[in-house]
Amino acid sequence: MDNLERKLLDLPRHKLGLKADLKIRLQLYYLVFINSFNSFRQIFKIHNLFLFRGMAVAVVVFILLGGTSLYAYSNNQITVGSPLYPLKRTAETVKNNLSISDVVKTESYNKQSQRRLVEASIVSNQAQKSDEETDAQLSKIIDQAVESFNKSVVVADKIKDSDKSDAVSKTLKDDSHESLDLLDSISKNVENHDNQELSEKIERARVTIDEYVHEDELREGNGDDKVDQEETNDKQEETSQSERTNKERHEED
Amino acid sequence: MPPKKPNFTAFYSEFKDKIYTYLLYRVGFNQALAEDLTSEVFIKAFKNFSSFDSDKSFQPWIFTIARNHLINHYRADKQIIPLADVEQTLSVKSKDVGRVLEAEQVIKIINTMEEGDKELLIMRYVDELNNKEMAAVLNKEEGAIRTQLSRSLAKLRALLIN
After folding, report:
1. Cβ-defined contact of A14 to B156 (cutoff 8 Å)
2. Of A9, A24, A29, the CB nearest to B39
3. Which residue, A34, A84, A109, A141, has fewest beta-carbon neighbours within 10 Å?
């Protein structure tokens, strides 16, 4: 490297001023932002048609299905055989599964049991004559009602808080009176069906619910019996004691 | 997975001063004009960044854009650039009087040379591009660049002696 080249390499290098640097950076960042925004828009432009359609269909299906389920769930007239009945049952199952606390679960099962009985009442009322299919449906519904009722009782027993437990069992018992009335009405409706099995099933359901309603009375009754028994035993013992004493006196004489 | 394309702003930070210096020398030390041109060059580069091959060096690519932009600028605006600012710029930047005088003299002579020679000398000795990079920028063979550079140096030497 000769002297001239050294002189040339020694020529000053300049730095871009801070103001100009900032100005260029701002312009570049603005362009970066615009580019990103456009890319984002482009992505949506390319896919949005499918995305939008898919979402719209999903929303419509959700609204229709949700609305219909809600209608089916809240309508007592929808019974076995109705095309909306499976939706009604699904909505109930979903509600049961979503119930977290035992209190809510108990109420949910209890309501489910009552719903079944209302359905059974409607079905039995509509069926004027004996019909195998209707009887089979009634039998199934009553089984389901009893099953739900038993579940509600089992879950109610799990409630540890005594205040809540008392409140829940009071509600259950109050509702059970309605259930018993419904069972009575079903029983009357199926009287002319001459279906012994169904009648027995209704009676068994009635007994199950009735036992729960009169649970306390039965307990008290059992308690009274015990007391009576004890008193009788005491009396018998006293009698036998006095007899033994009399015998001894006779022997002495 | 394809390699991620480098960030343009990182390139800007690395090459802004080189491009500015190149343009400043080429526009007769007109700072305002050099700044404007630098800004335009980088914006143009950003807009065409998708065409940049990340396997290759960024330097020849950005210098090509700067050079073409400068040519377009001269085509559009054929004004003669005065060299009055040179002394002021250099005296401000350096305190070594002897070196400043030498640099002034060299720059003045370079500015009197033909555009081709001037461009080669600035690229090679101010912006420190190697022959390969210069060949890429000027779209010439590396050998041709070497020959032309030695001729330009000889011309400058002769002018300095005179």
Report:
1. no
2. A24
3. A34
Say whether pLDDT at B79 is over 50.
yes
Q: Is B82 left (phi over 0), alpha (psi -120 to 50) or beta?
A: beta
d(CA A74, CA A94): 14
CA separation for the pair B129, B21 (Å, rounded): 13
Give B119's contacts (C-beta < 8 A, 6+ positions apart): B26, B67, B138
Length of chain B: 162
User: Which of A77-91, A217-231, B143-157 is most confident?
Assistant: B143-157
From the CA of B19, how many Å to the nearest CA of chain A? 9
Contact A177, A212 (CB under 8 A): no
How far is the C-alpha of A82 from the C-alpha of B120, rounded, in Å?
91
ipTM: 0.78
Give the residue among B139, B36, B135, B28 at the shortest CA–CA distance from B87.
B28
Kindly state the DSSP code that residue B75 receives in the 8-state scheme.
H
**Alpha-carbon distances, residue B4 vs A42, B53, B59 (angstroms):** 20, 12, 19
Task: For residue B47, list chain A residues with Cβ-Cβ distance below 8 A.
Answer: 31
Q: What is the pLDDT of residue B38?
A: 94
Q: Is A32–B125 a contact, with Cβ atoms under 8 angstroms apart?
A: no
Arithmetic mean of pLDDT, B113-120: 88
| Cβ–Cβ gap B9/A8 under 8 Å | no
Indicate yes or no: CB of A9 within 8 angstroms of CB of B125.
Answer: yes
Whether residues A8 and B99 touch (CB distance < 8 A) is answered with no
What's the burial of A145, exposed, middle or buried (CB within 10 Å: 0-12/13-18/19+)? buried
